[in-house]
């Protein structure tokens, strides 16, 4: 059997393995190897895939590597580097579409999965708002700011105006920490409190503010902060 025939047979076996048992049945480098066959059809992609895993440590590291860093690996040309980056962006788009028009309370894990895929390894901060209708269905997700967050940038009035435009009843705020540590700062807490207060003034609800880290997240709702800010708002309003 020639090397070419053996390579074709190997690819066929990998595809069959994937179709039968899913990606969990493949080794890390085999997943990358299989993906590369679509961009490098006439070459053995196994050694290239192994080099990518060796350089970027994990599958996640490969998909999140910069375009130019991918092309520094021998065998990775423009098409292969594009395919790897496109795969990540397509996955993010698919997850975003999956959560749209779904009730948040029944799809919170899917929302978190979408946020972690699209935000966790960014090198700069972004602030995103997820808008929900009166049935708690997600109707829109929008990035409102890119760059370091501060009180003058996350302006409640602008967010409320967007919410009115989308006819939203509830909001979820999301931003990432490029440091990888999702622990909220004092400023993060102040911003969240002000956003909760502004939303309540307009009879809108805040479900959560989620901070995305590398492999973890912080939920203001899960930790009781959102409830605390809402109670504080009621006390101030009644006083």
Major sheet details? 5 strands, mixed
User: What sort of overall outline do the alpha carbons produce when their principal axes are compared?
Assistant: elongated
Strand order of the largest sheet: 2-1-3-4-5
CATH architecture identity of the largest domain: 3-Layer(aba) Sandwich
How do the SSEs run, as a string of H and E? Answer: HHHHHHHEEHEHEEH
Question: What is the residue-mean pLDDT, rounded to a whole number?
Answer: 87
**Between the first and last Cα atoms, what is the distance in angstroms?**
85 Å
Report the β-strand fraction as a percent range. 5-15%
SS-derived structural category: alpha+beta
Number of helices: 10
Would you count the extended β strands for me? 5
Total domain modules: 2
| CATH class placement of the largest domain | Alpha Beta
**Proportion of helical residues:** 40-55%
Please mark out the parts with pLDDT under 50 across 5 or more consecutive residues, or reply none. Answer: none
Provide the CATH superfamily of the largest domain: Cytidine Deaminase, domain 2
Tell me about this structure.
The protein is α+β, with helices and mostly antiparallel strands and 239 residues long. The protein has two domains: 3-92, DNA polymerase, domain 1 (Orthogonal Bundle); 103-238, 3-Layer(aba) Sandwich (Cytidine Deaminase, domain 2), CATH 3.40.140.10. The protein contains ten helices and five strands, in the order H-H-H-H-H-H-H-E-E-H-E-H-E-E-H. It has helices at residues 3-21, 28-36, 46-56, 59-63, 67-70, 78-99, 108-119, 156-165, 186-201, 225-238, and strands at residues 126-132, 138-146, 170-176, 205-212, 217-219. A five-stranded mixed β-sheet has the order 2-1-3-4-5. A hairpin with a 4-residue loop joins strand 4 and strand 5 (217-219). Helix 9 (186-201) crosses helix 10 (225-238). The longest helix has 22 residues, at 78-99. It starts with a helix and ends with a helix. The model has no long low-confidence stretch (mean pLDDT 87).
């Amino acid at each position: 059997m020639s090397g070419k025939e053996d390579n074709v047979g190997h690819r066929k076996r990998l595809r069959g393995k994937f179709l039968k048992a899913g990606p969990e049945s493949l080794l890390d480098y085999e997943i990358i190897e299989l993906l590369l066959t679509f961009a490098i059809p006439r070459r053995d992609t196994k050694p290239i895939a192994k080099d990518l895993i060796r350089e970027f440590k994990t599958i996640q590291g490969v998909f999140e590597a910069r375009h130019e860093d991918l092309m520094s690996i021998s065998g990775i040309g423009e098409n292969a580097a594009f395919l790897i980056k496109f795969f990540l962006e397509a996955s993010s788009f698919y997850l975003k579409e999956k959560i749209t028009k779904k009730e948040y309370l029944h799809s919170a894990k899917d929302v978190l999965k979408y946020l972690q895929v699209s935000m966790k390894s960014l090198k700069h901060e972004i602030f995103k708002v997820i808008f929900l209708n009166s049935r708690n269905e997600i109707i829109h997700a929008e990035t409102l700011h890119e760059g370091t967050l501060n009180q003058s940038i996350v302006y409640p009035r602008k967010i409320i105006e967007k919410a009115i435009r989308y006819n939203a009843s509830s909001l979820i705020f999301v931003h990432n920490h490029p440091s990888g540590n999702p622990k909220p700062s004092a400023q993060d807490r102040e911003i969240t409190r002000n956003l909760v207060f502004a939303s309540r003034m307009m009879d809108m609800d805040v479900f959560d503010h989620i901070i995305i880290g590398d492999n973890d997240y912080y939920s203001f709702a899960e930790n009781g902060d959102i409830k605390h800010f809402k109670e504080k708002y009621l006390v101030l309003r009644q006083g």
